[in-house]
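Hello,

Following up on my earlier ticket. Below are the four sequence lines again, exactly as submitted.
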Amino acid sequence: MSRRSGILEFAVLGLLRESPMHGYELRKRLNTSLGVFRAFSYGTLYPCLKTLVANGWLIEEPGNTAEATAPLTGRRAKIVYRLTAEGKEHFEQLLSQTGPDAYEDEHFAARFAFFGQTSRDVRMRVLEGRRSRLEERLEKMRASLARTRERLDDYTLELQRHGMESVEREVRWLNELIESERAGRDLRGSATEGPAQQDTTSGAPGGLPRSGDEPRPDTPDDTAT
Amino acid sequence: MSRRSGILEFAVLGLLRESPMHGYELRKRLNTSLGVFRAFSYGTLYPCLKTLVANGWLIEEPGNTAEATAPLTGRRAKIVYRLTAEGKEHFEQLLSQTGPDAYEDEHFAARFAFFGQTSRDVRMRVLEGRRSRLEERLEKMRASLARTRERLDDYTLELQRHGMESVEREVRWLNELIESERAGRDLRGSATEGPAQQDTTSGAPGGLPRSGDEPRPDTPDDTAT
DNA sequence: TTCGTCATGTAATGGGTTACATGATTAC
DNA sequence: GTAATCATGTAACCCATTACATGACGAA
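Thanks for your patience. The regenerated structure is below:
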């Protein structure tokens, strides 16, 4: 039962819930698809996988990756990890947690990344929790700034200002998301293969208004250790 | 010569260069004034101070804090740390480094916080290095997004989009700063007590256009362990 | 046949937190 | 006199990285 890192364990469980994978691929997904928030090294990932197996949440299977809908690279895998029933149950239990941990930067991002498998009410609690966390932070920053403004040089001031602006921006983002959730819109379910949706109590389609970003395929690079 | 954490060591040296302080106060400054980037605990700070003393960069002095221009709280201190000549020299050497480390998130923030004591050319290199670092990151995100867009659900997509937007925003901020530096504006020198400016090769005043933020003194709170 | 990437691991180390232990000083 | 805050420290642990070691497979 040795308790390993919250966020890695969570993300691994979440990714494996979508489909079985081996460690190498798992790490890539962690760093790219979900890589917005965090990059983990093998030295962290493999030991973690072991303890998850030891906990009965995963099983190791030898053999080839299914590679779902598109067998792009028919590459052979050594050890494929698959979520067990207990693993699934455990993940669902983690998903339903709304404690203060879930509002911390990295933890929040991980939670958000799996909103597609999260019930609406939990989503709301997490978003609102995050928002009030940030608002607290803003209060502190404002207070501290008011106390020390004249003692600081302009660079320090500029740094603080930029920091606050970033936080304010995230609050606005959260506001939009929360409003969107409240209005009954649901961003879930547009993925290729959707694993069992547990308790969606609505279904009105239509996403958030997208700000125009247009990515182009450029340097198809990848991080290696 | 045991090498302790780069950023903490750097920040401690930088703060003590401005004026001598004891550990407790140092930590507060680290968490509030410069607290935008990082909070350290005593368990990290005190051992670090010890090794800095062992390296000959600080000396411990018993006695009262000078509290500079304003003896607001005439509070007595146990151990006041003061930068030695070697410490000053070492800090200056750290300040002049422009290696790739200086472009990482936290490290960069720490560097920026001490731009007031940094020469213009180093400032430029750090800002430009940071910018190209972020641009690389953007490329990767764009590429990864282009590769995986259709496999992702809308929440994951939204998370990526927001992440990219944040990075783009920081790039724009850096652009302004760089332009400002190039134009000869210098944000340095408006602090109450300015420690020796080493090599300013310009002096045109006038800061960056400030976006309006108006802080009010609200909850004058402080983080305690 | 050699290079790149896929693939799995381990040992040493780093950098930091938490919880604890201790005590002085100030405000009420 | 007691609570809050100031003030300094240590030991145990946690999470993760780095560098290393190993080897299979495909493409040039």
